[in-house]
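Appendix B, record 7
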Amino acid sequence: MPELPEVESIRIQLQRFLVGHEIKEVVINYSKTLKEEDKKNIIGANIKKVRRFGKALVIDLSNSYSIVAHVKMTGQFIYRGPNLKNPRPLSKKVVGGLPGLPAEVLLSRTKAGKHTHVIFTLDRGGVLYFNDYRKFGWMRLVKSKELTDDSFIGKLGKEFLKDLNENEFSEILLRSKKPIKLLLMDQGKMAGVGNIYANDALWLAGINPRKKSLSLSLSLRKKLFESIESVLKQGIKRGGASELAFVTPDGGEGKYQDFTLVYGREGEPCKVCKTPIKKIKLGGRGTYFCPACQS
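Structure tokens (predicted):
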């Protein structure tokens, strides 16, 4: 599912497209994505800010409410309106990968694709669509002052690139016997890193993903922290990785999948030593590493 760079890429565009606009109407086609009863506290509100907490998005409204959203595996926010000048062609991944449908069919209030579950109509002709063909994504309305009590946000650990520092990171590692890759992906311990960037950061730091967290030396803990920040920044720079259904709100795709270090490169030569990259299962997730550089 999308990780910190992907969700940050969504946030950056939504901040640019939505802030300052009034929500005039909300159409809910699938009530498990957003409750019908929440509409009354959304319609008529202005959008003040778009924030990110780990892998969750928060759209702050002018009436002291916030929309908390998680795109999960295949959720997509797609915007069309006056703040998107000269939009590029929609990715074929839009609306669950239904290539061939023209934009006017995919992105119309009356003929939205069958995977379009929520439509926000904005003032000045803007429209925000939420698509999700696996239906795992969700949105809910909470009072802004109670965000930290939200059942998802309240359980998140401190976040990379935001409020998790190197000393705190080191202390978390020293308290855990988990394989280091699984600990990095534990959002309750530290937020933002998932499978793609955990694989690449561990390769960059020269650490075997199966190594127990508490066994890492001080120098390796420092190197890993720096490597995580490096790959996350690269991910943001590239607009995230467009695996499965990930697209940005302008309907485009990220490019990080073209620049991964080991993720998705099974059998390819290591970028340092040329040893073929190996893939194993760890915690049920595909795990990529170099047997020589990450011994």
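Remarks on this record: Helices lie at 4-18, 94-97, 103-106, 166-174, 180-184, 195-205, 218-237. Residues 181 and 254 are 24 Å apart (CA to CA).
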